């Protein structure tokens, strides 16, 4: 880990965290229990890395980024400022991963190669808990990826994406100056409600 002077003093590293040589950590950043950060990698200022999270080498993380517990960030991922990555999110960097060569006689190298594809998470975006993010794509500014989503294509900025782009997150964001008024459901006539209840009632045999 590289930091010097007051910056080093303000970095908080849990005794059980593993920080490899070549990792740069900005001032005010906290790394919690059993996290593993491989070098070379860079974390900006005022970040939080949750317990049991793994950050691979060649990962770039901006300032004021929150990474919850059990997050997996693989090589080739760039995370810009102000991003939220919720618990259990997984990033990938290979569309066709294999363990061995076609003859199965030898393991393939684990180092990044021609099949390693990058992913960029733009500033202010949120990755929901348990989401799986593919590679060779970009998560747009302030996009909202829902929990458990599987992201295989780039998302535009302010998009809300539970597996496909469904709506604009700006409508529900507290940063939006004038969010649209919620739609009201039309009241159903009493006769229609009675008919629906009759159809759903169990029949006697």
Strand order of the largest sheet: 1-4-7-10-13-16-19-21-22
- Determine the strand fraction and express it as a percent band: 15-25%
End-to-end C-alpha gap:
75 Å
CATH homology superfamily:
Hexapeptide repeat proteins
Net shape: globular
SSE string: HEEEEEEEEEEEEEEEEEEEEEEH
CATH architecture: 3 Solenoid
**Percentage of helical residues?**
under 10%
Rg result? 23 Å
CATH topology: UDP N-Acetylglucosamine Acyltransferase, domain 1
CATH classification, class level: Mainly Beta
3D architecture notes:
With 205 residues, the protein is mainly β. It has one domain: 3 Solenoid (UDP N-Acetylglucosamine Acyltransferase, domain 1). It contains two helices and 22 strands. The strands form four sheets. A nine-stranded mixed beta sheet has the order 1-4-7-10-13-16-19-21-22, with no helix packed on it. The N and C termini lie far apart (75 Å).
Map the helices and strands.
Layout: H1 6-10, E1 12-13, E2 18-19, E3 23-25, E4 30-31, E5 36-37, E6 41-43, E7 48-49, E8 54-55, E9 60-61, E10 66-67, E11 72-73, E12 77-79, E13 84-85, E14 90-91, E15 119-121, E16 126-127, E17 132-133, E18 137-139, E19 144-145, E20 150-151, E21 159-161, E22 167-168, H2 190-200
Parallel strand pairs: 1-4, 2-5, 3-6, 4-7, 5-8, 6-9, 7-10, 8-11, 9-12, 10-13, 12-15, 13-16, 14-17, 15-18, 16-19, 17-20, 19-21
Antiparallel strand pairs: 21-22
């Amino acid at each position: 880990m590289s930091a010097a002077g007051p910056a080093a003093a303000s970095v908080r590293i849990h005794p059980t965290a593993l920080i490899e040589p070549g990792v740069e950590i900005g001032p005010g950043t906290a790394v919690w229990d059993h996290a593993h950060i491989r070098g070379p990698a860079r974390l900006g200022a005022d970040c939080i890395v949750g317990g049991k999270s793994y950050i691979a080498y060649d990962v770039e993380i901006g300032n004021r980024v929150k990474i919850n517990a059990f997050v997996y960030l693989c090589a080739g991922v760039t995370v810009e400022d102000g991003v939220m990555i919720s618990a259990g999110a997984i990033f990938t960097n290979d569309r066709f991963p294999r363990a061995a060569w076609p003859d199965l006689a030898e393991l393939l190298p684990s180092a990044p190669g021609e099949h390693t594809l990058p992913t960029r998470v733009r500033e202010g975006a949120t990755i929901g808990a348990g989401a799986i993010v593919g590679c060779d794509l970009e998560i747009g500014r302030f996009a909202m990826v829902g929990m458990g989503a599987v992201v295989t294509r780039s998302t535009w900025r302010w998009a809300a994406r539970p597996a496909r782009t469904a709506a604009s997150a700006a409508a529900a964001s507290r940063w939006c100056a004038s969010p649209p008024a919620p739609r009201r459901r039309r009241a159903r006539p009493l006769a229609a409600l009675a008919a629906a209840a009759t159809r759903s009632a169990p029949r006697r045999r």
